[in-house]
Structures are given as C-alpha cells and as structure tokens.
C-alpha cells in the first residue's frame, strides 16, 4: 500500500544519507568490476554496515569464589546467540521516518479520498463506471434499504427512513466516526453491501460496466487476497459514486421508500 511504499522510500533516503561515503566509494570502485549480486553480497554484509564498536578493555583482577562463578556465568550468557530483534511496528517506523509529516498526510489523504491516488486513465474508468451502473446500483440500494427497514420496523417512520438512506452509501456512518474516531473498514468509506458484488469492466463480450452479485460460496474480492489494491479502489469508488448520485438525484429516495411501504401495507 501507499503507507508501506512511503516508509520504504524514507528508509532508503535515511540509509543513503547515513552511508553516503560508503555507497559512493563502492559505486566508484566496484560498479565496473562486479555484478549487482556480488556487490550486494559484499557491501550489504560488510563490516562497515554491521560492525559494532568494541567493548572497553577490562582490567584483570584475581577473582575467587562467587566472583569467579559470576564470571563463568557471564561468559556462558555471552556465548549464547543474541535474541532476534522484533520487527518494528508501523507506529515506530512512522516516528522514525516521518520527520516532516508528509507520510502521515498522504496516509490521511488515502484513507479519506483514495481516488486522489489513481492515475488519469483509472479515474476515467471510475467516471464511466459510475454513470453506467447507476441503475444497477439503485436496484441494489432499494433491496438493501427495504430489507433493513423491515428488520428495524422503519417502514412507517419517514424520519428514520431518511437517516437509513443517508447511510446507505457509506460503510461507517459519519456519526460513528465522529463519536468514537472509528476508522472505516476500507479507504473512502464505501458501503459494505458492495462486498456482495463484483464490478465488471467492459470487454469484447460486454460493451458496458456490469454489477454482478457473488455466487454462492464465492469469496468477496476484498477478502480473496488476489485483487489489486487499485482495482478495489476503482470498484469502491464506482459503487460509492453511483450510490450518492441516486441519493442526491431529483427523486427523494427516502420518500419513495415511505410511499412504497404504504402501498405494500394496503395490499
């Protein structure tokens, strides 16, 4: 993800600054003499990078009894291999390398608006997909809203329906984020019902974008571990944009649900 890429960049910059003399000397002397693999093996394992300052000399004194036993015990401990260092946490890496706050700013931007990190051609896909899938997304929204309203007995409560519709296009309601600083499940806070669908781009057999519900037993893209990060950002952005376009359209979605509830109740 962007967070890890930026940390890697900072770590590289820090390493290059700390060992600039060793790096420049190595590049000047060995670039034309050795292959990259040989340079890697020789330089990255060299004493210049891994050496530690020698301990101060100790004065030798005659030791008896408990002192000699402590010396033997200390030597035994020193002979044991040192414990493996634990991998640093993300917070520790940020404190070390994010000296100017630029990484934190980019992480915040990615969390709130991941579309800003997409390339121009990917943004074009988002714009086209969100236009072509509005009707499909509207049908899904209607099913999701109607099911939730029935389960919570909100069909005859217009105000509650309005609140329900207002949260249809997000995974974590803004009120929950403000109250508990809860982070959305996915960057951009797309609706979680989108996990049950796949967004399919146009192909030779399909001239427009399509929205397909997952088959029984099919693993959501978000949990499959096989989807490219940008592909998920595009999917979430298309669904979110289409959903928000429906909610903010000329027709009042909540009022429509309320009216339909009355029609169904009279039957």
From TrEMBL:
Q: Which domain of life is it from?
A: Eukaryota
Give the organism, scientific name: Coccolithus braarudii
Q: Where is this region: Disordered?
A: 47-92
Quote the protein name from its UniProt record: Uncharacterized protein
């Amino acid at each position: 993800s962007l967070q890890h890429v930026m940390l890697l960049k900072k770590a590289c910059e820090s390493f290059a600054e700390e060992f600039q003399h060793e790096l420049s000397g190595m590049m000047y002397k060995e670039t034309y003499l050795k292959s990259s693999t040989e340079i890697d093996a020789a330089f990255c394992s060299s004493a210049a990078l891994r050496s530690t300052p020698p301990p101060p000399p100790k004065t030798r004194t005659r030791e008896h009894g408990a002192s000699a036993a402590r010396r033997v015990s200390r030597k035994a401990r020193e002979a044991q291999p040192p414990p493996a260092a634990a991998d640093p946490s993300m917070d520790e890496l940020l404190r070390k390398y994010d000296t100017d706050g630029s990484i934190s700013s980019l992480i915040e931007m990615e969390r709130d608006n991941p579309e800003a990190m997409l390339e121009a051609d990917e943004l074009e896909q988002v714009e086209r997909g969100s236009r072509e899938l509005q009707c499909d997304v509207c049908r899904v929204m209607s099913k999701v809203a109607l099911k939730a309203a029935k389960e919570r007995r909100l069909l005859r409560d217009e105000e509650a329906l309005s609140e329900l519709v207002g949260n249809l296009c997000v995974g974590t309601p803004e009120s929950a984020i403000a109250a508990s600083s809860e982070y959305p499940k996915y960057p951009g806070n797309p609706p979680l019902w989108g996990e049950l669908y796949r967004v399919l781009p146009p192909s030779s057999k399909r001239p427009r974008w399509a929205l397909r519900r997952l088959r029984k037993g099919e693993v959501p893209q978000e949990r499959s571990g096989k989807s490219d990060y940008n592909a998920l950002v595009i999917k979430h952005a298309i669904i979110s944009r289409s959903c928000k376009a429906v909610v903010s359209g000329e027709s009042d979605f909540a009022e429509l649900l309320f009216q339909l509830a009355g029609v169904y109740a009279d039957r």
